[in-house]
Every structure is written in structure tokens, then in C-alpha cells.
Amino acid sequence: MRSPVHIGAIAPSSQYLARAVTCPVPERGEPIVVELGAGTGPFTAEIQRRLEGRGRHLAIEVNPSFAGLLSRRYPGAEVLQHDAADLRRLLDQRGIDRADVVVSGLPWALFPVSAQRQLLAEAVSSLGPHGAFTTFTYLHATPLNSARRFRTLLAEYFEEVVPSRTIWRNSPPAFVLHARRPRQ
Q1: What is the pLDDT of residues 36-67, one digit of tens each?
Q2: Do 113 and 149 form a contact (C-beta atoms < 8 A)?
Q3: Could you tell me the pLDDT band of residue 9, with boundaries at 50, 70 and 90?
């Protein structure tokens, strides 16, 4: 309630939503997974479970309290207390050319169009040609102009955008947007 622009949820996401958002994380190989807006860690937990110690997981969280909590809870993740708008620079500093998957828990519908564009451009520049981007939106936010604008922007930045079925076992109900093949 005190920070609605930085915290877009009233409660942590359910394990059902976390599973749906993180399904593009490969269960084999050494993938590089980037998580934007990790919050208190429901997606972080599921990414760590899927990776089982393989690959590399960077969890970016702007809130210092949440970042500290994530660092303590998930030592297998590289938690970066930073703004997601600096994604490309953060990857460059760590010698990472491309991510395989970018998972976002950011409150897209709360951002102005300029911030949406900047963050999507950072995500696209960080993904390889076969990379995947996933995020979610709450069902009740679907009619908002900012949410509709975000869906249109996703189609500008990715060749394919597929919405999931509604995840009713989340409070509030939500659905996932799976975006593939970033437009370079």
C-alpha cells in the first residue's frame, strides 16, 4: 500500500502462477535465467527448483528489503538489488552475452508507456534469438488501457505472444503471457 508503483501485488503469487510463469526455464543444460522484479520470491523458488543447481539465475529486485530477504532464502540465485531498467549493463558486467529466459514479476500495468518500452527493450536486448520472455497480468487489470497497451507492445517486441488459461488458484486470478522470438 505504501509503494504501489514498486509493489504491484497485495499478496505473493501462488505456486500455480509461479509454475506457469517459469515453465520456459529449461530442465536440462546450463541455462541463464533472469528474473525481473523478484519481490519476496515465489518465482525465485520455482526457478531454483527447476534449475536444481544448474545454470545461472540472476534475480533483480529494486527493493532493498526484498533483495536482502531473497539473498538469505535463495543462496543459489545471484540477487542484484537494482533497477530492471539496467538489465543489459548488469549482464555485461557479469560477462553474460545472452539470457535464455527472462521471467518478469514487474507490475507492467502500473508503468507509463515510456517505462514499459524501456524495460521491454532491455529484456529483448538481453535474450538470444530463441529466448523466451514470460510475465503475468491479473485478470481484473485486462481492461485497463495500460494493460492493453502492454499487450500491444509485447507484439511489437516479440514475434509470438501466447496467453495462458486463467489461473484461478491465484489471488487475484491471473494469466501468463509467453513471448518468444524477440525482434532484434
Answers
A1: 999 999 999 999 999 999 999 999 999 999 99
A2: yes
A3: low
Amino acid at 41: G
Burial state string for 52-84 with b = 16 or more CB within 10 A and e = fewer than 16:
eeebbbbbbbbbeebbebbbeebeebebbbeeb
Residue 134 DSSP SS3: strand
Annotated domain spans of the chain = 17-182
Integer-rounded Cα Rg, in Å, for the chain is 15
Please name the CATH architecture into which domain 17-182 falls: 3-Layer(aba) Sandwich (3.40)
Q: Give CA–CA dist 171/173, Å, rounded.
A: 5
C-alpha cell at 153: 507492445
Cα–Cα distance, 87 to 125 (Å, whole number): 9
Mean pLDDT over each residue of the chain, to the nearest integer = 92
The angle subtended at Cα 27 by Cα 103 and Cα 19, nearest 5°, is: 45
Per-residue model confidence (pLDDT) at position 147: 87
Q: In what order do the strands lie in the sheet with 32-36?
A: 78-81, 56-61, 32-36, 99-104, 127-138, 174-182, 158-163
| pLDDT in the model for residue 2 | 45
- By the 8 A CB rule, do 56 and 91 touch? no
Global pTM value:
0.91
